[in-house]
């Protein structure tokens, strides 16, 4: 493969698709990383900072439509390529590498270090989408002084893993979550046809190669993947699931609960949109999709996929128990897409977030006309919600 360090400094970013007044640059020495970011509203000093954290398989580029809108409202808006993604370097791009650098607490340190490197003591707005959502949640959980409000998008935050409570007098060992996950995986495999969760599949050694070099080509795979998880695909009609059981999870689309033995490119290939459907999706034009294709063609997906392996790592989950019983006490907001299954993909997480994990959570906002890619599909509606929440939370003070 080509060298990300060399390519990232020689090829201009965005293929001419970045909005005016949005720039691409590198910030060096951020928790061991050289961070690539997109920013807007940087021209005048003293503006409050808005930090936007993307998910999988997104990039800083996914915020391109939102950056100018928040800058017009008076913010210095920064969207980094997170560790493992895009043109940010300083992370190991192999499957057989320690996972600790990709753990949620180190990704939290990445965000904290970036805020400091940019010359800020705190953010006025912190937004995390998809995998960026738990990173943002732990930022606000660990350092509410630096992150005094938080917006979680698409992935509800059920709270940190809990330590076993009041077990000293019991002879039995408490059931470990890893055992529950193994039992669920076995139950999914026993279905007809046999199924596997996308998280388990994306944690496997072969997933990177499957996604990086799919038979239909990388561009066609990404087009189908973005399409099938958007509001444009008519099959997305999400609803709450009753329990975390194989039968309930089997109601999810196949891009969440896959047929066992199928790769993700094989799973989404039947849903490849027609030329007319692509033309009707102004939020991701062919030149814009080409930016994703170019970036992932250069790096592959392994760095991005480490996040899924982190969730199953016993040591990294044990590390999070430092926050056992701790609630998210800053003003917070959850935003999902009305046509996004991610809100319900982890049964019970939404309810846990609103009843136990947070103490100052606002209304649950589900944006009409948005699937999973809210900031690309409906940036104006998202911007209006973010600005209203930020004003209410006192983020501009």
UniProtKB/TrEMBL annotation:
<dbReference type="InterPro" id="IPR029058">
    <property type="entry name" value="AB_hydrolase_fold"/>
</dbReference>
<protein>
    <submittedName>
        <fullName>Pimeloyl-ACP methyl ester carboxylesterase</fullName>
    </submittedName>
</protein>
<dbReference type="InterPro" id="IPR000639">
    <property type="entry name" value="Epox_hydrolase-like"/>
</dbReference>
<feature type="domain" description="AB hydrolase-1">
    <location>
        <begin position="51"/>
        <end position="375"/>
    </location>
</feature>
<dbReference type="InterPro" id="IPR000073">
    <property type="entry name" value="AB_hydrolase_1"/>
</dbReference>
<keyword id="KW-0378">Hydrolase</keyword>
<dbReference type="Pfam" id="PF00561">
    <property type="entry name" value="Abhydrolase_1"/>
</dbReference>
<dbReference type="GO" id="GO:0016787">
    <property type="term" value="F:hydrolase activity"/>
</dbReference>
